[in-house]
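Lab notebook, bench 4. Still working through the backlog of constructs that have no structural model yet. Next entry is a single chain of 399 residues. Request: give me the structure tokens for it.
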Amino acid sequence: MKYRLVSILECPVCHNVLELKVFKETEIVLSAPIRDMRCPACVFCGGASHSPEDCAQCTGREILDGILLCPCGERYGVVDGVPILLPGDTSAFEQLQRRYGEKAAFTNKDVREACAAGLDADVKTSQRFGYEWTRYPACFAEEEARIFFEETQFGLSELKNRLILDAGCGMGRFTRVAGSRGGEVVGVDLSESVLSAYKLTEHMPNVHIVKADLMRLPFKDASFDVVYSLGVLHHTPNTEKTFSALVRKLKAGALLSVWVYGTAGRYADFITNPLRPDRMRFVRHAAAQRAYWLLVLAREKCSNALRRITVSIPHKVLYAFCHVLALLGKLPLLKYCTFSVHPDWRVRLLENFDWLAPPFQYHHTKEEMLVWCAEEGIAVEKMLQHGFIPKVGIRGVKK
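Model written out:
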């Protein structure tokens, strides 16, 4: 964790400013000089005015272990470089106590018990996504950059020198893309995948990785210039509330890009979905459009029926079963009965698991998304064009 991150952190319970206590830090060997980065009144400088030399020292340090303390009594651990800002989660302190003894003890029993009640619903989601993203191959940098710019609908110049939130970063593949294009990026995820994200980006002084809940984000309101979330919000307990939580962290005039799983919905709405031009040519006629809608509807119902079984299967057993789907994903025609046709079998394996494993998986129409945007003051600039399987995505600006 970098010192500069503390300037935007707050307690997700009471929204107070957090105090940092450092147990262990290390120096980072910077691959290039730090220029033109956001320079907050950070805790490293004591909140006072600072010089470029101070900033060079600050960005050259990494907090490996420590505690973030709140006046409300809540405490959050920083373990192996990652701050864990989940109320009631004491797992970080078990590790810190083994390393540093009683000075790292979590003693506020009342706060711990009150907050821990909210963790149960997240355990299965965290466990399954952690299992997935710690196994995802981190070797598709060029493909991931292409996907990032296509799905966020951002231009390169819109990232440089911006403070960016990657909401649901997984193992950090898009965090790395945004960070390597000149933005200062905060990647957030609920699962153990943050460990992979940290390893993937630890050489980047402009990237921060945080373990936190998207519905209880530990950042001050109106902190970010850019927020994006690609295929994540529909895996939270309430997509609309999580969308609202993200918008609160945007500055006025800031950019937002979000996509969620689409649904067949009403035929009249479905046929106005923004298909990519290479797909549109197959459904120009009314009969083809009707057949397309029916196929998507049937696929959705079959998927929902299958998921009623798979979400109850132990995740390691389900992962083994997904090897069969990964094999089918290579076969002509049969591959369309699976949930991934990616050319790499490892990606097919994990994308099938990603579809079948999560306890929460909601599907939405573009009409729902547009209502959320109107209610939250987001002016929609573009809708995401997608393939035959609907994706509801927007790029917009906070008014």
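Notes after review: The first helix runs from residue 52 to 59. The longest strand covers residues 250-261. Flag for follow-up if needed.
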